[in-house]
């Protein structure tokens, strides 16, 4: 049945893919965004659809809407962006969660919180399962995001226990794909852009730290499965691809796939950068029958194609654009 669905952060990287998929499934979409890191370019192709409503709004302010489901994605996700205005980041996480929970409380909508693997901090447990409470620096440069997301999880659970709100929590691990912002500084977009331009590939630290990379289509599928799972399964649940790679391996793979002449250079590792990260997705498999389908090479190939198009670098011309 067609639903009225609010997606906060709907003009961002993940939000725009979610808007597109849910619109294609005949739902009515309310895409709310303040365009802090999102872009009209991500959603322009949806705006002609009468079931797509764009709301230019900052989620730190209350808003009154009548919806069936809410995906709460509003929050800058890349370290460069969330550290640019850390006070705004924590406000968005905490006040944004309170405001969407207010809507959910009034309308009895189900609300899904886009949480993060960052709630595990720099983990001593590997891979990370949902039962692990994490090791987060509460006063570091990443805390505006990590602690903001932890507070949002707390709010989801307290509104559930105190007010009977049907809240759900997904912990998203590093996700990549088309529509990542060119300037957001995340590792996949940085490396692809550097490789396509023939610039140096900037590995922070010695390149031995790891991440596990999930392709956007798999992630969106996991979010939708969680939203529509039986009410007695509310998470938190990890959604991510357990394939684990060192940052050096990622750099080498991107150089190979772009056929680039770029060289790898090493730069200082930012403070509190987690040394390793890999999701245990046993719970998502058992409860949501979810398992990622897209391998790293396949997902990177699609992402490289997107950036070639955006940067207007045709195949074979990488080396001329220095
Ligand atoms: P993104 O920066 O592309 O998207 C975030 C969107 O939220 C943007 O469109 C931005 O303009 C909007 N926004 C920010 N502050 C807002 C505010 N105060 N009011 C309204 N809109 C606001 O990032 P993304 O990768 O698409 O991430 C989406 C969500 O998923 C975020 O909550 C992020 O924390 C979470 N997440 C993403 C990843 C990942 O790897 N992509 C990993 C873990 C968690
Ligand atoms: N990183 C890197 N070079 C870059 C950007 C990031 O080596 O140009 C590293 C970063 O230090 C981290 C990993 O890649 O160890 C993932 O960084 P990203 O910003 O994508 O996300 P994070 O998982 O740290 O939130």
Percentage of residues assigned to helices: 25-40%
CATH architectural type of the largest domain? 3-Layer(aba) Sandwich
User: Strand sequence of the main sheet, in spatial order?
Assistant: 3-2-1-4-5-6-11
Based on secondary structure, the structural category is alpha/beta
Regarding quaternary structure, what we see is single chain
Radius of gyration: 19 Å
Please tell me the overall pLDDT: 96
Low-confidence stretches: none
So what's the CATH class of the largest domain?
A: Alpha Beta
Question: What is the CATH homology-level superfamily of the largest domain?
Answer: NAD(P)-binding Rossmann-like Domain
Q: N-to-C SSE series? A: EHEEEHHEHEEHEEEHEEHEHH
Biggest beta-sheet profile: 7 strands, parallel
Report the count of strand segments.
Answer: 13
Which distinct ligands sit in these coordinates?
nicotinamide-adenine-dinucleotide, uridine-5'-diphosphate
What is the terminal-to-terminal distance?
A: 52 Å
The number of domains: 2
Shape: globular
Classify the fold: give the CATH topology of the largest domain: Rossmann fold
Number of H- or I-type helical stretches: 9
Give an account of the 3D structure.
It is a single chain. The protein is of the alpha/beta class and 322 residues long. It has 2 domains: 197 residues, Rossmann fold (3-Layer(aba) Sandwich), CATH 3.40.50.720; 88 residues, UDP-galactose 4-epimerase, domain 1. Helix content is 37%, strand content 17%. It contains 9 helices and 13 strands. The strands form 4 sheets. A 7-stranded parallel beta sheet has the order 3-2-1-4-5-6-11, sandwiched between helices. The chain has a two-stranded parallel sheet with strand order 7-10. Helix 7 crosses helix 9. The longest helix is centred in the first third of the chain and has 22 residues. Uridine-5'-diphosphate binds next to helix 5 and strand 8.
